[in-house]
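Checklist before submission:
- one chain only
- standard amino acids only
- sequence pasted in full

Submission:
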Amino acid sequence: MTDTAAAEAIREGRTALGIELGSTRIKACLVDADDPARVLAVGGHEWENRYEDRVWTYSLDDVRTGLQAAYADLVADVARRHGVSPTTFGAIGVSAMMHGYLAFDASGELLVPFRTWRNTSTGAAAAELSEAFGLNIPLRWSIAHLHQAVLDAEPHVPHLASFTTLAGYVHRLLTGRDVLGVGDASGMFPIDSATGTYDERLLGVYDGLPSRQAHAPALRVADLLPEVLPAGAPAGELTAEGAALLDPTGALQPGIPFCPPEGDAGTGMVATNAVAPRTGNVSAGTSIFAMVVLERALTAAHEEVDLVTTPAGDPVAMVHCNNGASELAAWVGLFERFAAVTGSPVAGDADAVFGALFAEALGGEPDAGGLVAYNHLAGEPIAGLDEGRPLVVRTPDSRLTLANFMRAQLYGVYGTLALGMRVLADEGVAIDRMFAHGGIFRTAGVAQRFLAGALDAPVAVGETASEGGAWGIAVLAAFLRARSAGDVLDLGGYLDERVFAGAAVEVAEPDAADVAGFAAYLDRYRAGLAAEAAAVAAM
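Returned file contents:
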């Protein structure tokens, strides 16, 4: 597409816009709706969660202002690249961090501060639900947050009229519809893949729980959950109020169709073309998680694994870790500051500092020289931690070098994830291809190589790795537009034939020395979790 053709497509609305609210950045991505692999413009806005009254949260004011800022940045990028200003789009999609708890009364007022996926205060509820359902219900799931509020007899529960995820909330702001994509909904309450909606039997099990009947006798969970929609289904249109919220300048016109809002796990699967059985992906950011599309049911419930779905509703095993690359980034920031005070030419260039330190890690010993790095800023259920305390631990005979230190930090990003993935390996879950995306993979050949060693599987990274979920939800918006125009392809076929057919992919095969070295590292990592728990208790 020429620059002139791109400008014409933008003016005529032959585009798809994706907006994703990540943990540290709100990103907007505009693609050519007829060729979604072509990114036309991007925008972004930095934001950060808050830890208030022992709750990880974001304010809804920050949600609104952040949306506006990211959209304005996208519009500015469109003007810089193409010399036009968009007034409409072919379709829009919203994605955000999965899980958590946004509770509203009948007038739409927020009843308690937004409780994000990062909170680990739902242990009693998750344990009771897991036993009652015969499935692992993780601490971060929305139903666990709701049930914990019921168990604690929180005063807001009698006033509860609906609860949803962050993507569902933003979608409601922009369209007025209370719906969710099936992938995001599967992190609220278990989904029956045969029906494509909430499991009817388990809804009844929940309403029959003695604890629910004792503490909230009038509550019926089915009445509170959003409607579930599969990828490609129409999910409403941009209202006049939504247009004014997203673009206060008044240039954006209402009436634009929306695809179902999705969670970051689902958009990550789309962004890596990992929606078919025996495929999987790893998404690394503030959190890190792996999604593996299943070809058969697991033989047992595992507390390390939860069952969700693709945006099309197919069953997925998810290994979710609350802590990803934040601690690694903090250490890189420290070294960047050191570069600044020494007058180094890389000062102020974070990408250059990441690149230099990651390259140094390649020279480290395969087992990181005896060093172990724990990245636990928040609680980590798979590791048995209610709270986090980042640690670097080594024995007196370990080799403390910069190369080993950086390799340990990179390995630490994957440590808890690897514990969960070992469970799937023991279940005999087969993976033909594993894709990775997220900013950590922008430095070519390092984080990707170490992940291949950690998983003992080939890991692919594509050109869109750093765009991530914002591009993934833009693709889902383009898929809606294609389906509305009569395209009969399912989501997997659409991705294969319309999006990824010509995509460049770099594949890292597992190196035998890395596999053995990471296995030795993981043995020390697992043994040292007692030190992590002691640090939480003592500090």
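Reviewer check: The two ends are 57 Å apart (CA to CA).
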